[in-house]
Amino acid sequence: MPGTPAGVGTAGEGMAAIWRLAQVDSRLADLLPNVEQRLACFAGMMVARQSGAAEAAGYPRPGLVQGAWFYRGYVQMDDVQHVLSGLLAALPMLEAQEVAG
Fold this sequence. Notes:
The chain is mainly alpha-helical. It has one domain. Helices cover 65% and strands 0% of the residues. The protein has helices at residues 5-24, 32-49, 53-56, 77-100. The radius of gyration is 15 Å and the shape is elongated.
């Protein structure tokens, strides 16, 4: 596991910010391929790390587990906050890649 969800989510937020800047500032255009690759990796990795229904079913209160990002057996509010923020920030890039095919 590469790190806490909050830490990885913060990196995703930063990559998405660089991607948005590179869309409007041609001086950053050469960064786009690497930023897009890393942002897509971040999104895929965090979606895969998210607790699903099957995992949550093994807990007494599955509704509190499903959708969370655990690290070493626990989850914190900033884990959820930064991952969700990073995933939402990555959506425009992911949608643009999907349209481009």
